[in-house]
Amino acid sequence: MKRDSRLSSVLHALLHMAEQERPMTST
Q: Could you report the per-residue pLDDT of 1-27, keeping only the tens digit for each?
């Protein structure tokens, strides 16, 4: 599944951004 690769990348980036906005201690 290479198509998911791009989506995964975007989702990962979004997750990182969200974590920086509201840091969570190992959910």
A: 577 789 999 999 998 888 887 766 655
Query: Which residue carries 């906005």 as its tokens?
Result: 21
Residue indicated by tokens 């974590």? 19
Q: What pLDDT, on a 0 to 100 scale, did the predictor assign at position 17? A: 86
Domain coordinates of the chain in residue numbers? 1-27
* CA-to-CA separations, 25 to 1, 10, 12, 19, 20, in angstroms, rounded: 31, 22, 17, 10, 12
DSSP 1-27: --HHHHHHHHHHHHHHHHHHHS--S--
